[in-house]
């Protein structure tokens, strides 16, 4: 199975990594993940046994957890098809279960939630104890949440909670897949309190793992969006979307953060900047990250309704191959575009499809957040009139959206000295501190000293966050 490194060393590292993704162990060590991610996998054995299957599982985990998604997918395609191993195997049921969980995690990380769900279902079928059941259901919860199947995700989350409470020792450490699933489910329900709790669990669960810390900040940014604390949200998301931390998150989490960034800009009335943030972004197969859907909200804010329809037509043509979670807001945004263009029948049809899809899968509220409120209320009212059976659901959505807090009064920008203002103006852009010092005709030490003063006044710890706060206050206008 492995072409390089002493076999016993590989096996010992593989055993540690396989054990470390179970809820009974701390998160994997970065050194172990990097070691395995760089190994070349050889051809499949004639017959899989527990040792070789465990090594394969560890290689999949390492590539997935280090965001080496293309490498992980190639490994899956080499050894699996239609929910099974291509070569025969003599495996313990627990080994087969955790191996399928690892494949499900790879597909979830790649944004293919349906395939992830298929392998998670196989993992559940083979799970023969509380620990392997927990692992399999955590992966299924994540796959379902990525696809917008919040009822199914909630079912697996409840099973994990039951296993943790009824089987002592099952959950002794935070589970990464489970926490990511909770972020998506809480975001759909506009549950800021749960997002705060999950962010804390991620921060404490693996302090040395940059991917866990990135996901924690993404959860906090979504929390700020829900609470309409746009200044804090911009500070949190600035580094995630384009700063020093931009490559420290998993692909799906980075896409989630990018969407939060665009939504924050839209909420602040900056649709052109939101479009700029999304420029060049290509949706992955299946559109678990659908940037056409994201752009549609900015185009609506700019009054470019025909572009909304033209740019999202390919998504509609995908039919059932399109991720449900991102299809719902796309339909609602098309409904607004149709309504503005005078196509009332098309508007009502698109809105009804998106509304019922959302309700049948668990009632996410996030698709409504960036819709213009007067037009949303009109569409909701027409929905209730045309579909009497939906009256209670419409009332629930309207009531929940009314509970989302309104923006608080923004505190004034702390006073900066004239020299600090000159430096603050120069912070936005790619110039290094040395280049800024030369431009301002001061020493580099002076720039660093003034920066420390600016950071203290703005209550931030870095350049990206400082620029975000200054932008939020209109400093650069």
Structure, described:
There is one protein chain. The strands form two sheets. Strands 1-4 form a two-stranded parallel ribbon. Helices cover 68% and strands 2% of the residues. The model is unreliable at 406-410 (pLDDT under 50). The radius of gyration is 24 Å and the shape is globular. A hairpin with a 2-residue loop joins strand 2 (80-81) and strand 3. It is an all-alpha fold and 477 residues long. It contains 24 helices and four strands. It has helices at 7-20, 30-37, 50-65, 69-79, 93-110, 113-126, 130-146, 150-166, 176-188, 192-205, 210-226, 230-242, 251-267, 271-278, 291-301, 305-317, 324-340, 344-361, 373-386, 391-403, 418-427, 433-440, 444-458, 463-472, and strands at 48-49, 80-81, 84-85, 89-90.
Radius of gyration: 24 Å
User: Are there runs of 5+ residues with pLDDT below 50, and where?
Assistant: 406-410
Structural class from helices and strands?
Answer: mainly alpha
How many DSSP-defined strands? 4
> Helices and strands, in N-to-C order?
HHEHHEEEHHHHHHHHHHHHHHHHHHHH
User: So how many helices?
Assistant: 24
Oligomeric composition of the shown chains: single chain
Measure the end-to-end span: 59 Å
- What sort of overall outline do the alpha carbons produce when their principal axes are compared? globular
Largest sheet: 2 strands, parallel
Q: Percent range for helical residues?
A: 55-70%
